[in-house]
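re: ur question from earlier - yeah i can do the single chain one, its not a big deal. heres the input i used so u can compare w yours
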Amino acid sequence: MLILRMFLFMVILLLVFTGTLYLFTRNRGYLVFARQLARYAGLVVLIFALLYILERYVLVGWNVFV
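and the output i got, formated as tokens:
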């Protein structure tokens, strides 16, 4: 969970940084980068969530039957 928190902290910092750069430069490339960063960060969080569910419910439940 610590890795996930550090990952989310870094993503938030990058989103704030790119938003600030966009406000100062009005370069749309920063918005495109922020959108891609948010999309891939959401995908990584979704993968972590699925792995957590797999570990928590499927693998632990499997040991009950074995």
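The chain is about 95% helix and 0% strand. not sure if urs matches, ping me
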